[in-house]
Design brief:
By secondary structure, this protein is mainly α. The protein has 13 helices and 2 strands; from the N terminus they run H-H-H-H-H-H-H-H-H-H-H-E-H-E-H. Helix 1 crosses helix 3, helix 6 packs antiparallel against helix 11 and helix 7 crosses helix 8. It is globular and about 65 Å long.
Length: 306
């Protein structure tokens, strides 16, 4: 590994680490996804992009290192020419990574504008049982996708950087932008279920981010990462079916739900609560309302709000 490659690895991992640190002090991202206010949308996009850098940069190190090696092989000539080409070389790598991150930034913007804000209004008109069915259907769809040919194709390009560059290679700075976009799209095709779940179910917390980051890292770095994806898919389908049947209730921090759901999810925590516990709570009657704070059901998967 040459000096530039060491710098690339250190830069990517340092950026990821810094992004994780920033994520601990950011406002709760789910609380920002309540309206089309330009300021809130901008703040969410910045928070989302930092989160993507934290989660995805460790997994793209092999891809960036191979790209560096491929363009380095073309450097030759006098020392002046080589110096100029090294500057161009560095710029190409920055464009490649920047375009990759831009794809994920646009994805977050699309999720908040096209999904989260409309769903906040829609969910508020539904009964908890109906919400459970919707959430369960989302989990089932995400789980089934893990077994599709498209998932297999996208994860194949993410696992094998050489295959990616053999198919999508393009020269020059425009080529770096184009390949960065393709890599982002393939990565999106591989990982979108995890991020849809985080946004749709209100699981935008450091706990869930860390879990999904580990899953994504395993999928991309292990030659048989598809088996990790399929194992996760089975778990998602099981949770989704249970939610649809009312066996569990999955609560996120989606604004606009009824007051009972909001009180249970205050602070950005995520919850998976057995249905019989909810029924017992409701059966307690008005006399127990004053003790709501002390009688909350413990969460099974507390998250740290962003």
């Amino acid at each position: 590994m040459n000096n530039l490659q060491k710098i690339i690895v250190i830069s990517l991992l340092s950026t990821a680490g810094l992004s994780w640190l920033i994520s601990t002090i950011q406002p709760d991202m789910m609380s920002l996804m309540t309206s089309y206010n330009p300021l809130l949308i901008s703040l969410f996009t910045a928070s989302w992009t930092a989160s993507m850098a934290a989660m995805m940069f460790p997994a793209i190190v092999p891809m960036v290192l191979l790209y560096d090696k491929l363009i380095a092989n073309k450097q030759s000539g006098s020392s002046t020419i080589i110096a100029e080409r090294r500057l161009t070389h560095t710029l190409k790598i920055m464009l490649f990574i920047g375009m990759y991150l831009l794809i994920w930034a646009l994805t977050g913007l699309g999720l908040v504008l096209g999904w989260s804000v409309p769903m906040n209004s829609f969910v508020s008109m539904l009964e908890p049982s109906q919400i459970g069915i919707i959430f369960g259907a989302i989990l089932i769809i995400c789980g089934i996708y893990q077994f599709t040919a498209l998932k297999n194709k996208c994860i194949g390009y993410c696992e094998s950087p050489l295959s990616f560059f053999m198919r999508r290679w393009s020269n020059g700075k425009i080529g770096a932008i184009r390949m960065g976009a393709y890599h982002g799209i393939y990565c999106l095709g591989c990982c979108w279920p995890y991020f849809l779940i985080m946004v749709a179910l209100g699981w935008m917390s450091l706990v869930w981010m860390g879990l999904f980051a580990l899953i994504i890292f395993g999928e991309k770095m292990w030659a048989r990462g598809i088996w990790i994806a399929r194992g996760v898919g089975i778990c998602l389908v099981i949770l989704g079916v249970a939610s649809c049947l009312g066996l569990i209730t999955i609560y996120g921090t989606i604004t606009g739900m009824n007051m009972d759901m909001q009180s249970q999810t205050q602070g950005g925590n995520d919850m998976v609560m057995p249905q019989d516990m909810i029924e017992n709570k409701n059966a307690a009657g008005p006399s127990h309302e004053n003790n709501a704070t002390t009688n909350k059901v413990p969460t099974m998967s507390p998250g740290m709000g962003m």
